[in-house]
Amino acid sequence: MIETRLLQPVTPTDLVTVTRLHDDVEAVDGHPSLGEAVWRDLDQPLEAVSAGVLATDDGRAVGFAYVYRSDSFSPPHWAAGVVVHPEVRGSTGVEVALLDHAVAHVAAEAGGLVVLWSSNPISATTRLPRSPVSATNGISSRSASRFRSPRNRRGHPASRCGPSCPDRTTARG
Question: For residues 114, 32, 52 and 132, what is the CA-based torsion angle, rounded to 10 degrees?
């Protein structure tokens, strides 16, 4: 059974777990799942409201989402990154559980727009969280996803991203 828990703050021990998961996924996928901005904020959060959500299956880390207030202010928003082990992608609801928990955290911290950055385009068939926060979201064919929460408002070297940096997919609530 998949369980999620909020990591706030993300402790050094949590960071080791996340790094191992990310490295395992990168070895399979051939590219990083989390961008430089996530690693930078994990290393040194800009604000105390940054948080991670760890998904485990029988105690084994199978997914991680991280949300933080973006340092770009146009428009003010939260940014999110997600990594999910290929063995559980799409079949166990890990992605939905991670994003639901992350968006709930944003709503608890006064809400705002959440932009999900992904190194893989999100297809129109990807099932995003169906919480009150995002129940009406529609996905465009471009690839970061956007969620609007009910209330308004707020590593690795850059070369890891390479020429295939994340596309932007948007979803609006």
Answer: 40
Could you give the maximum distance between any two Cα atoms of the chain, in Å? Answer: 41
Collapsing DSSP states into helix, strand and coil, what is residue 70?
coil
What is the domain extent for residue 40? 2-172
User: CATH number of the domain that 80 lies in?
Assistant: 3.40.630.30
Whether residue 117 contacts residue 78, with contact meaning beta carbons closer than 8 Å, is answered with: no
Q: Among 17-21, 101-105, 116-120, 159-163, where is mean pLDDT lowest?
A: 159-163
Q: Is 74 exposed, middle or buried (0-12, 13-18, 19+ CB in 10 A)?
A: exposed
Percent of the chain predicted with pLDDT > 90: 55
Phi, psi for residue 120 in degrees, rounded to 5: -115, 130
Q: For the residues 11-38, what does the mean pLDDT come to?
A: 96
